[in-house]
Design goal:
There is one protein chain. This protein is mainly α and about 550 residues long. Among the domains are: about 170 residues, no CATH class; about 180 residues, no CATH class. Helix content is about 45%, strand content about 5%. The chain has 24 helices and seven strands. The chain has a three-stranded antiparallel beta sheet. Strands 4-5 form a two-stranded antiparallel ribbon. α9 packs antiparallel against α13, α22 crosses α23 and α23 packs antiparallel against α24. The N terminus is likely disordered.
């Protein structure tokens, strides 16, 4: 066995230790916050960043290389690294517009909608407690949302559809948000504000918010919009969850002093003071709520979306965490956030135009640091980010054609009446590498489970096999390429979407020449690249 193979076996034994060395609440005027100048260009965005961060023009001149840019923008837009062929075509292009052309191809790819639908599914799903008798499956919702995103449906229309939807989830996937929350009034009030407005009003459920200006009455007035919503929760099949109108009922704010006594009757009222009289049906209430939540005059709606997109693309949001843009959370680069938000509103909530503006900017194309200091200028503190679970899986598919294998379904028994659904390879990778997208980057850590999966997972190890009979990507590569230098280069391109440095090439070739078994030597190399921090990080 080679030295690399021995090391690999040792690491598998000892684990991953070596891998870890109201508008008034905003204190701004509504008119000031929704100014609608013409949509921003990427060059104008760069000027805003330079001025707001007090940079020199030269500070945005040193952009990343073509290799680095294509990998970064591919991960951000379609959730995977570029293939060697995609990279080769891009590098051969000598036109000045090659990067913007690549962006258009990525935005037009069906993978764009799939990637960002998964992001929003995680935003919603990570805070939903699982019900007792079923397991929540977001597949149908993600498919629906991916179609909306790929069609570039305006974001406000998409959110309105989510808040208003009724019926069974299998027939109306947009009903997932209300249905998966069990139509719980207080959960829906808190999560509607957090997910779509990035406002943390949950603390106001029992008392006035201690760090913001939200009052307890405001929380329960928002909850009153959902008082007539109901969700029928079936056994073991979340697609059968049905959202419908109870037909009656008004909302009472609980009496904190004496829970046994009658509470205060609340009128559905949005956080800006917009009211809806009682007596309305469920659909009338949620339709009115959707109208005041998802529109350009709402002081938080567009700001929240722009902040989330900026944070994911740039490594750090204007507000952190991204689900808290309340008055108590002072933003970075306010002078950039406001006009970018205004441009998003002016475009008619055109999400692809927002992505296009950011990723074509020089600001986006800067080098990111791994551990930025808060003492640095705001933009200079941009940071690398960890890939989400589904992005890690798609990157493994792209690199080594990792198959998505689902074990047989477990049949119910007397002891286990509701067995959990079997986890596919994608489920397993997404779960272990997944995290709540609303967390601050510094609160997302690498785990032992992540390292162990990349080192030891049986399905993954099969794809590292270089024996000719295995028919893996690696086996085919070695059969087609006898030149070790070219084979090393191809392997780096497959996994990391870049060419190896001279030093990396030398180390790899020295190892290959020191091992009598060529396939085994390249297995070591592939295993090492997959287990590198670079593979699961956007830089």
């Amino acid at each position: 066995m080679s030295t690399f193979s021995s090391l690999r076996g040792g690491l598998r034994t000892i684990g991953s230790a070596l891998f870890f060395s109201g508008v008034c609440a905003l204190n701004i005027s509504l008119a000031d916050d929704v100014t609608t100048p013409p949509p921003l260009t990427s060059a104008q965005l760069d000027r805003l960043v330079i001025d707001a961060a007090k940079l020199d023009d030269a500070d945005l001149a040193d952009v990343v290389t073509d290799e680095q840019y294509l990998r970064r923008v591919s991960l951000d837009l379609i959730g995977r690294q570029p293939t060697p062929d995609e990279l080769a075509v891009f590098l051969l292009d000598t036109t000045e517009t090659k990067r913007s052309v690549a962006v258009e191809k990525l935005l037009a790819s069906p993978e764009f909608g799939k990637n960002w639908a998964s992001y929003w599914s995680d935003v919603i799903g990570y805070r939903i407690p699982p019900p007792e008798l079923t397991f929540l499956d977001y597949t149908i919702f993600e498919q629906w949302l991916a179609d909306r995103i790929n069609q570039n449906a305006p974001w406000d229309q998409t959110v309105r559809a989510i808040l208003v939807a009724s019926g069974k989830v299998k027939d109306h996937p947009e009903a997932t948000f209300v249905g998966f929350h069990g139509a719980d009034t207080t959960r829906l009030a808190a999560e509607t504000a957090r997910v779509f407005l990035s406002l943390q009003i949950g603390c106001a459920q029992c008392h006035d918010h201690p760090f913001d200006e939200w009052k307890r009455e405001q929380f329960h007035e928002l909850a009153a919009y959902f008082v007539r919503s109901s969700a029928k929760m079936p056994w073991n099949d979340s697609s059968e969850i049905e959202v419908k109108d109870k037909g009656k009922g008004e909302y009472e704010m609980p009496n904190v002093a004496d829970p046994t006594k009658k509470g205060t009757m609340m009128v559905p009222t949005f956080l800006t003071g917009s009211k809806l009289e009682n007596g309305k049906s469920d659909i009338e209430r949620r339709t009115e709520l959707a109208a005041v939540v998802a529109n350009g005059t709402n002081p938080w709606f567009a700001k929240a979306y722009v902040n989330r997109v900026w944070a994911r693309l740039m490594g750090r949001g204007f507000h952190e965490p991204v689900d808290d843009i309340g008055a108590g959370n002072e933003p970075q680069l306010r002078e950039v956030h406001k006009p970018l938000t205004a441009s998003f509103v002016e475009s008619g909530f055109d999400a692809k135009e927002l992505f296009r503006t950011i990723v074509n900017s020089k600001a986006y194309q800067q080098r990111l640091t791994s551990n930025p200091s808060l003492a640095e200028k705001p933009f200079a503190a941009g940071r690398t980010t960890k890939l989400r679970g589904d992005e890690v899986f798609q990157s493994l598919v792209t690199a080594i054609e990792l198959p998505n294998v689902t074990p047989p379904k477990i049949e119910p028994t007397k002891e286990i009446r509701f067995p959990p659904p079997p986890k596919s390879t994608k489920d397993l990778v997404s779960e272990i590498f997944g995290f709540d997208p609303s967390l601050r980057p510094e609160d997302i850590s690498r785990t032992l489970g992540q390292a162990m999966l990349l080192m030891n997972n049986d399905q993954l190890q099969k794809q590292i096999d270089a024996k000719p009979a295995s028919s893996t990507v690696l086996a085919k590569l070695l059969a087609a390429e006898e030149d070790n230098t070219k084979a090393v280069k191809r392997l780096f391109q497959l996994v990391l979407a870049r060419q190896p440095s001279e030093a990396e090439t030398t180390i790899a070739l020295e190892h290959v020449s020191s091992v009598a078994n060529r396939p085994e030597a390249f297995e070591d190399l592939l295993w090492s690249l997959l287990n590198s921090a670079e593979f699961t990080t956007k830089r």
